Amino acid sequence: MNKLCSMKEAIAASVTDGCSLVIDGFTHLICFAAGHEIIRQGRRNLTAIRLTPDLVYDQLIEAGAVRKLVFSWAGNPGVGSLHALRRRSEASSPERLELEEYSHFGLLSRLLAGSAGLPFWPLNNYAGGDIARVNPSIKTVTCPFTGQALAAVPALRPDVAIIHCQRADAEGNAQVWGLLGSQKEVAFAAKKVVVVAEEIVSTERIRKDPNRTLVPGIIVSHVVHEPWGCHPSFVQGFHDRDNDFYVKWEDISRQPETYRAWLEEFVYGVKDRQDYLARLETGLLDKLRAKARVCEGVDYGY
Amino acid sequence: MNKLCSMKEAIAASVTDGCSLVIDGFTHLICFAAGHEIIRQGRRNLTAIRLTPDLVYDQLIEAGAVRKLVFSWAGNPGVGSLHALRRRSEASSPERLELEEYSHFGLLSRLLAGSAGLPFWPLNNYAGGDIARVNPSIKTVTCPFTGQALAAVPALRPDVAIIHCQRADAEGNAQVWGLLGSQKEVAFAAKKVVVVAEEIVSTERIRKDPNRTLVPGIIVSHVVHEPWGCHPSFVQGFHDRDNDFYVKWEDISRQPETYRAWLEEFVYGVKDRQDYLARLETGLLDKLRAKARVCEGVDYGY
Amino acid sequence: MATELSAVPTASERMAYRAAQELRDEDVVFVGIGLPNLACNLARATHAPGLFMIYESGAVGAIPERLPVSIGDPSLVTDSLAVVGQADIFQCMLQRGLIEVGFLGGAQVDRWGNINTTVIGDYANPKVRLPGSGGACEIAVHARRLLIVMRMSKRTFVETCDFVTSPGHRVNGKRRAELGMPGGGPTRIITDLGVLDFDATGEAVLAEVYPSVTPEQVRAACGWPLRTAEALRTAAEPDVSVLRLLREKLDPQRLYL
Amino acid sequence: MATELSAVPTASERMAYRAAQELRDEDVVFVGIGLPNLACNLARATHAPGLFMIYESGAVGAIPERLPVSIGDPSLVTDSLAVVGQADIFQCMLQRGLIEVGFLGGAQVDRWGNINTTVIGDYANPKVRLPGSGGACEIAVHARRLLIVMRMSKRTFVETCDFVTSPGHRVNGKRRAELGMPGGGPTRIITDLGVLDFDATGEAVLAEVYPSVTPEQVRAACGWPLRTAEALRTAAEPDVSVLRLLREKLDPQRLYL
User: Fold this and answer.
1) Residue among B120, B180, B208 minimizing CB distance to A143
2) Which chains touch A (3+ CB pairs under 8 A)?
3) C11-250: which CATH number, 3.40.1080.10, 3.40.50.150, 3.30.465.10, 3.40.50.1860?
4) What ipTM does the predicted assembly reach?
5) How confident is the model at residue C33 (pLDDT cuts 50, 70, 90)?
6) Which CATH class, in words, describes the domain spanning B4-102+157-288?
7) What are phi and psi of C141, to 5 degrees?
């Protein structure tokens, strides 16, 4: 089944007010294009889930789309703070964001349980510290063989997962290489999956290297072709991280005025990703484009 | 660290009388060469573990190497029975093999627990059936969130795992494609890992495609270069399954006399794998050699 | 080697054809080797081209060029949509609830659709040691629709299984819902004589017979007093074009027919 | 751009060098970005060429060509020995007990090596919202040796952490063994003034000071009454060749120095 559609259509069909959502990716493959489209469509009261909410989550928060954040590390990686998040979660804030907080391993375990169809997941963690003390979703389970007490977290089944990949076919069979993060777990845990790809390829091409397929099309509902949809994050084999942007973001986002101005110019003020890309500094994409490091293929013959 | 050695050395250094052992592989990548070397070295009282004990496990049983079998499906896949196993496990047998039996998912879950450093693994299975009734290692765990009763199995930490792969470097970084079976789980669960490879390649070549690495060298103690070490099973991209052998095996193995004669000729009567290969029918290896189906490489540039 | 095509289906052909009729386009099927594989290939070649085949070996969306000789045949890997570890197959596909149809057979089946593939006789001192569960138990627990494909005889359709490897609708007096099993349980037993459906109590009843078979013949081949459904249907049989497809294209070497 | 090389190390250079001395050849290290990454690269370039670096992003055996600007920098992927999902990193590497050395820093540390990276102030109404745990909590629980690298001040070395994100040797009066934590707990706190070791009770004590620093200076920068080890050592400092390596080769853009 051909599931190809525009980002506008995919978001309109899958992200509704009040739903829970993951735009996944671990520094790699973070679909900023999807986040910006959600802001443009004016979604509200989202439960935004991700191990590493970063700039695009902060932009969703600043735009007023998010009611609750479920996370384990929130920052501008390698640079600084998420300022909208901080403004909405410190004692001085008038309108507080609801936070539900784990460590990476704990939140990942919630997604593992969701992806595996189990109601909970055990992990050896949290003994003594304060994370479990302030989060009632972290409980204890006792090993029926050793009597050892372990932490347990409940399955997480997000309403929607948005997974960016290097290539996919029109059915949503998605291939990823480089960092895999928690993309597989997020996709299998979610009730609905939107795949966004740098490249749309034929199903025959996917079938040439089946071990690269991270998300099978049977769990995917929409497929969007959105090259450079991850800028300023990176896509291995396609483009580097725009580190200058991450550094500049610290200044842009520190003051609500400059933050709103940026959103006006680059999110509300553009109609789609092509329009966003056209507003970037001339020559930037060429500068970020990856220098080829192609590996050999392997032999699937018999 | 260079861990290359001969199969003889690897087995002598890692497999001891009474130890627990997995020679893994799911129809694909089953290291018959390792099993034969264990028989030649006269090991006894092994606990042989595998989801799908097949011909080489049956040969270990016939040769008297095995005291206990931990398994979930024992047969000659697509053909028939394992006759040594049957002779040692039916009511009429004088000397009975100890059997510990799961379903695939259950035994895999034991290995998952072992590989993840947890004392147990939960799975939604076994309700009502007889598998859990006859196996005291299958217990129940209650979800601390939903109250749901689930099956639980204890971690399995085999003493030794033997993992065949398409290619590895001298440190044991092993790359596998095609069926992955439970090889990763077995390797991480085991206390000692022997990697056997069709091809030994440079570490630089492993680094060209890091997503293909299934077993990292840091958990590997010995590396053996043994091309065709999996015959009569198959190695994707190298050679097909020798199906005629599997079919013939039914007749060879049905009678203890013909079974012993085969072991004499092809196991006890050869000094190593090269010697075994030399005894195979002329032209067989050429017939089984894979017809190339090489996929494209992917780009790891940035 | 070409012989005149017989218009009379063999028992295997009947079962493969009848099983194929249970498959709908785009069903996600957990495929076993042998007749289930043939039934799936037949469905794909006829009314269900979008049938999605998953093998416990890890091949997802496989389109084998040759009839696989084992569940882990290399032809299942080449050109499949994805190949994943078995942990993903059992956890993320089966336990996660993505499998619509499972296929099982066995040495014994009882009226509740419980299946034995473990031992004949006492577990500790078996007369015959069978291969065991493999993935059968979890398929029986999780598949939304379970098709049982077995030849009928008093030896195989038994009052009580010697061992319940794969649970059906009722085990030791308890219904599967009480036992917390998420899958739907057995939908049908497809045999060489007819087809058994399951009634509201979870008991198998004779629902279809092939044109040349009488209900008495079926009952005589069953080890429990088999009830007959109110409206007994005639089971569909393959026509000559289907037989040609099966014999000449799908299993030309007659591995399973 | 070339300036005369100062032979006096900066605080960051001191800490990177001193941390590198803790690493042994072939140690498996769970590497964080910033100073820990620099310390590892320095160790690899000098006495521990076989240091094995694992990043929580999934890069295993990475040998980045450039200094990574984030823990998931693409340069960590290219030419690494393996790239795996984060589930494998946390389950099969960390929880499985394969990580020898972990590195952590934070906004606050107490005498037991408990670390806070979550909030300053009350959790529900924080004065400052910090990034949170990330992988820190599980690294503190599982690493066999944990190195804490932090600049010292009364604000950061506190009597009691506002929030214990990553447990040390003693949390709320309980020792880590009682709490069932498999890792060894903090081995040392490496600061810009000196190095703290942990005594048999799990309390941090001053064990080393840099040549230009007095024990009084260190105690003045500590929020609890810091005890001094019986034999106070002089902390090793980088010589000119190491400084050249750090400044010209390992962090030429001075991202972290």
Assistant:
1) B120
2) B, C, D
3) 3.40.1080.10
4) 0.97
5) confident
6) alpha beta
7) -75, -40
